[in-house]
């Protein structure tokens, strides 16, 4: 296919320097370079941003060059922050990277050639420039949009110089089964191309509108600067016309060459992605990851096509490069497991004979009829090992109190093992392979348990997101995880269909043919069981294989996918056994989904109580008693929200219910700190049980533990630092604190020193492996940790006391940095909530960091009808209750969340809201 430039773009024009000033662009970095064009006698003049001269003036020898290539319709202005930050870093004594950001010919302030320049020629043009500059290695390319393909073409052609590749949203291949993105199809329409891209600035303005949040006017002016007038926009139209929409297009062979060549490219790679991009969606990210599986990835949730404007891409890239340099100069070291204490040591350290109560025996019984499963090198065993060892047992494995039939469903070990093995074999028959991702949209119960264990048995990666995230949160989670298969009940599959979630659909039940077609269902669990009736299974996964992506609750920002290996999940089960004695013979009531799913891994018989898992407050005391009675349970695990309603509905218990609850020996509640009165009220319902409240998070499900007696003891010895005591490190866990500086940042060396407030770090064999496609977040969670160990920065702040107990004082982003020091929120909030007339309270900072003023936002008793400043008497009572100066007290009918604990209140939102109120804004609810 032969193309011509759009009419207005045929007139050549000379290169020029950008006008000054342009927002954020230092003119000292701009220069013009005249380059001989190969195979012709012509010379072409390029505009580039280049900090090479600045580094020379600083006396810095660059460690390498970052070669940046923009796409359409931007120019080197896109990379201005990277140029500046790289230069600033060199000035501060950090690694010095030379950054060369080009304006491609016919674009930006480079020469308008008036000649068609298809993809292959643009790759060659870039090589002409770098040859002329005498570029030495190491070089790391950095491309965006169609500049991504061009930069990768250059990378493939210069292996002797290449040290790595970095990409913002881009693509190298258009899957045949997916159409070209709608905005590009529209721009390529007959009679539209020239008008939309050259004659008018419509294409440019549409692109600038893709920023999140919207660009400032002066930044838009910067992007518009080289494209004033149709004669300057010919390259924009030519770039659009160069998109290979079919195999006949003249640029198709070159794009195919680049796409195919990536599969042999073994250099480190970084992909920084904006998921809200309507052009280069996650579909293209997945394709690139298939070609560059070694790539580190970070998806900036909420960001889009102009990621360079939406997020700190430059900081992420420079941090990655700094790590890359270390990795290339220091031999890689294997991941060393965190130190672990033996079960015997733990038992000898406990003088409480009930600490490991709740199991009929701490020593697993002999297996019943199955085959023993050999332990892994670390002493743990696969999650499914009891399903093999007890496969002939008719004893109860699990009970579902609320199945579709309406009657409790009792499943034996024999039936559960058979169901898991047949489902696993069936999944294997339809092509589910090790490493494939399977999203589970199944409510807790027998089906979910069987499907989960079937997936992990064949090495598939299960993707589990809490339905409590809501449709928007679930959509973000599922799309971000990009499952290959989706297994769901009708509600989940309906949402998947309506919202375009990826993956081959498998239904938990048979649907009418029309409904199945509508939902896109290709298989059912019954079909898989039939297919796998011979129970022939593939080889088992190894401990280091990925087993699951578990999404966080989303209460502290967009839900994050937390990746666990098989070994790490098995270590979770081991920690529960060591800490609480949950094992073979234990009856476990699990009103908290993660622990319901671990029941079979522990050899425990487990029961899911009758409740709506998306609304924990639907669990009643009667339902708990019924679940306890169904399996003679000795251990009960509930979320704090469920626990509050259980206590509130205790009047409905019958004498038989009370008798069942007296059989409970260990009671646990976790998910957020639990108050002493609530835990004590629950303990009165289970008078023979030792009450515990574990501390943990999705990234580490059991990190610390404290009993009700421990809470009472801690309250008597509280030194006044404040916070919620969550006890000592649980089972195989170590805890350290990274102290805060005066700005509220955790910069201190992690230590176990008492009474030092800082960020809480945890280490255990069952701590997460990494965050899924969140390289920046994952690296931040490991920053400054002891070398070689698996430590996780929790984002919580607190301190250790002299007895080694951990006190949680809030979240790191909610620390208030005042002129006289940092203030953590939980301690003052606890004191304020004890003041007369106050229900719940949140303490936030308003003003510049380092000089923030403390504002208390309170719910009153009785409740206020509207937002406003607190009455004088209430404000005085609040100020008198705390030792820190409170600048203002605001009352609200409700704090901005219906989640039940202050740890879940969005204090960042409250801070912004309070600032608006105090600066004269309208008295609206937050």
TrEMBL record:
Domain AB hydrolase-1 residues, every copy: 65-310
Domain of life: Bacteria
GO BP annotations, alphabetical order: fatty acid metabolic process
InterPro entries cross-referenced by the UniProt entry: AB_hydrolase_1, AB_hydrolase_fold, AMP-bd_C_sf, AMP-binding_CS, AMP-dep_synth/lig_dom, ANL_N_sf
SUPFAM superfamilies (UniProt xref): Acetyl-CoA synthetase-like (SSF56801), alpha/beta-Hydrolases (SSF53474)
Region annotation (Disordered) ranges: 1-22, 335-376
Stretches with biased composition (Basic and acidic residues): 336-346
Regions annotated as coiled coil: none
Similarity-based family: Belongs to the ATP-dependent AMP-binding enzyme family.
Name listed for the protein in its UniProt record: Acyl-CoA synthetase (AMP-forming)/AMP-acid ligase II/pimeloyl-ACP methyl ester carboxylesterase
Source organism of the structure: Cryobacterium roopkundense
Source lineage: Bacteria, Bacillati, Actinomycetota, Actinomycetes, Micrococcales
């Amino acid at each position: 296919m032969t193309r011509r430039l759009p009419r207005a773009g045929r007139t050549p024009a000379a290169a020029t320097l950008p006008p000054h000033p342009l927002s954020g662009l230092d003119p000292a970095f701009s220069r013009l370079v005249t380059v001989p064009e190969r195979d012709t006698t012509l010379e072409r003049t390029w505009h580039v941003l280049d900090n090479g001269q600045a580094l020379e003036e600083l006396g810095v020898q660059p460690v390498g060059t970052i070669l940046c290539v923009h796409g359409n319709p931007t120019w080197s202005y896109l990379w201005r922050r990277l140029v500046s930050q790289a230069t600033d870093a060199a000035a501060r004594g950090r690694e010095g990277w030379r950054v060369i950001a080009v304006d491609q010919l016919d674009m930006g302030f480079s020469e308008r050639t008036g000649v068609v320049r298809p993809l292959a020629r643009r790759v060659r043009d870039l090589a002409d420039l770098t040859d002329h500059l005498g570029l030495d290695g190491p070089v790391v390319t950095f491309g965006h949009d169609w500049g991504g393909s061009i930069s990768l073409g250059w990378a493939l052609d210069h292996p002797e110089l290449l040290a790595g590749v970095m990409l913002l949203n881009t693509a190298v291949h258009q899957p045949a089964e997916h159409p070209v993105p709608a905005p590009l199809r529209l721009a390529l329409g007959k009679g539209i191309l020239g008008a939309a891209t050259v004659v008018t600035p419509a294409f440019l303005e549409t692109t600038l509108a893709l920023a999140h949040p919207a660009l400032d006017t002066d930044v838009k002016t910067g992007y518009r600067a080289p494209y004033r007038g149709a004669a300057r926009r010919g390259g924009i139209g030519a770039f659009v016309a160069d998109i290979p929409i079919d195999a006949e297009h003249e640029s198709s062979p070159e794009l195919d060459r680049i796409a195919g060549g990536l599969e042999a490219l073994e250099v480190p790679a970084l992909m920084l992605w904006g998921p809200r991009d309507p052009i280069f969606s996650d579909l293209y990210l997945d394709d690139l990851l298939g070609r560059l599986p070694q790539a580190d990835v970070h998806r900036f949730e909420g960001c889009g096509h102009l990621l360079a404007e939406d997020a700190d891409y430059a900081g992420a890239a420079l941090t990655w490069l700094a790590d890359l340099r270390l990795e290339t100069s220091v031999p890689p070291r294997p991941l060393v497991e965190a130190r672990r204490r033996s079960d015997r040591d733990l038992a000898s350290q406990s003088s409480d004979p009930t600490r490991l109560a709740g199991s009929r025996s701490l020593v697993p019984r002999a297996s019943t009829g199955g085959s023993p499963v050999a332990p892994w090198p670390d002493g743990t065993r696969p999650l499914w090992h009891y399903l093999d060892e007890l496969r002939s047992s008719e004893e109860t494995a699990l009970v579902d109190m609320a199945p579709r039939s309406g009657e409790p469903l009792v499943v034996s070990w024999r039936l559960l093992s058979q169901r898991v093995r047949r489902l696993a074999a069936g999944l294997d028959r339809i092509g589910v392979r090790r490493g494939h991702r399977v999203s589970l949209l199944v409510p807790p119960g027998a089906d979910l348990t069987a499907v989960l264990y079937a997936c992990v048995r064949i090495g598939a990666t299960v993707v589990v997101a809490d339905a409590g995230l809501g449709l928007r949160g679930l959509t973000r989670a599922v799309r971000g995880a990009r499952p290959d298969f989706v297994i769901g009940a009708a509600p989940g599959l309906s949402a998947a269909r309506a919202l375009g979630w990826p993956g081959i659909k498998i239904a938990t039940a048979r649907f009418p043919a029309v409904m199945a077609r509508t939902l896109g269902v290709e298989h059912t669990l019954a079909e898989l069981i039939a297919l796998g009736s011979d129970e022939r299974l593939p080889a088992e996964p190894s401990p280091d294989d990925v087993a699951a992506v578990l999404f966080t609750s989303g209460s502290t920002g967009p839900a994050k996918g937390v990746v666990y290996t098989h070994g790490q999940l098995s270590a979770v089960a081991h920690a529960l056994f060591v800490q609480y004695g949950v094992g073979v013979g234990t009856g476990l009531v699990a009103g908290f989904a993660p622990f319901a799913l671990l029941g079979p891994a522990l050899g425990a018989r487990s029961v899911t109580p009758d409740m709506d898992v998306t609304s924990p407050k639907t669990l009643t005391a009667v339902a708990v008693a019924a679940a306890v009675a169904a399996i003679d349970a000795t251990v009960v695990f509930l979320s704090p929200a469920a626990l509050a309603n259980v206590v509130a509905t205790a009047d409905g218990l019958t004498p038989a219910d009370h008798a069942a609850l007296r059989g409970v020996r260990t009671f646990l509640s976790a998910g957020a700190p639990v108050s002493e009165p609530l835990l004590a009220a629950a303990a009165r319902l289970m008078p023979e049980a030792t009450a515990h409240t574990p501390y943990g998070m999705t990234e580490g499900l059991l990190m610390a533990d404290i009993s009700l007696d421990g809470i009472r003891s801690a309250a008597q010895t509280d030194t006044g630092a404040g916070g919620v005591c969550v006890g000592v490190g649980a089972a195989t866990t170590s805890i350290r604190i990274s102290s805060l500086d005066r700005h509220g940042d955790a910069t201190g060396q992690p230590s176990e020193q008492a009474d030092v407030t800082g960020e809480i770090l945890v280490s255990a064999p069952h701590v997460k492996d990494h965050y899924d496609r969140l390289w920046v977040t994952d690296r931040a969670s490991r920053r400054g940790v002891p070398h070689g160990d698996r430590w996780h920065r929790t984002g919580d702040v607190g301190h250790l006391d002299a007895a080694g107990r951990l006190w949680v004082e809030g979240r790191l982003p909610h620390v208030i940095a005042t002129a006289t020091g940092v203030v953590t929120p939980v301690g003052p909030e606890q004191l304020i909530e004890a003041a007369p007339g106050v229900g719940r309270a949140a303490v936030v900072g308003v003003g510049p960091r380092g000089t923030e003023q403390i504002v208390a936002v309170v719910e009153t008793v009785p409740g206020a009808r509207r937002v406003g400043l607190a009455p004088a008497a209430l404000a005085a009572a609040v100020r008198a209750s705390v030792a820190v100066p409170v600048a203002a007290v605001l009352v609200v009918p409700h704090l901005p969340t219906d989640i039940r604990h202050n740890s879940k209140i969005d204090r960042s939102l409250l801070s912004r809201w309070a600032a608006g109120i105090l600066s004269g804004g309208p008295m609206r609810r937050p």
